[in-house]
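quick one before i forget lol
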Amino acid sequence: MESRSVLLADAAATEALGQELAALWLRHRAERNAAEPPILLLQGTLGAGKTCLVQGIAAGLGIEEPITSPTFALAQHYLGHAGSSGSTALVHLDLYRLEQALAADELFAQEEEEALELGALMAVEWSERLSFRPDGAWCVSLELIDPDRPEAGRRAVLTLDQSCS
């Protein structure tokens, strides 16, 4: 899939995009019986909507637990159930506080192992802190259309099923 750009008017639209990504992931998992679930790399400035997007993903995965930014915990694990798709899981990382790439890489490797064990979708906020881009990762870059007016909405650029640049 080529990159595509989506305009998001508000938080509800951002969450709806997250639900769409969850549905794509569930289809990907079912079609390919994927042993290695895709990793979703999220990029964007503070307030761009990364956590809001993950909240939509969680809703799409049937996770009922409230989703908050794991900025201080660094990682959160959630379990859900998405109808006929069965059990689901989400590993949510936030690398914002990890300024050194080595620390970000180590946490990523540790949580990637957990995600594989759980068969979880792994969403990584502040993925630009990593020193590498995982092969086959799905990427979403979020940006405010007007940083001085957050109510003006945001733009999301999605790159799925290929390496991120």
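fyi The domain at 4-139 is CATH 3.40.50.300 (Rossmann fold).
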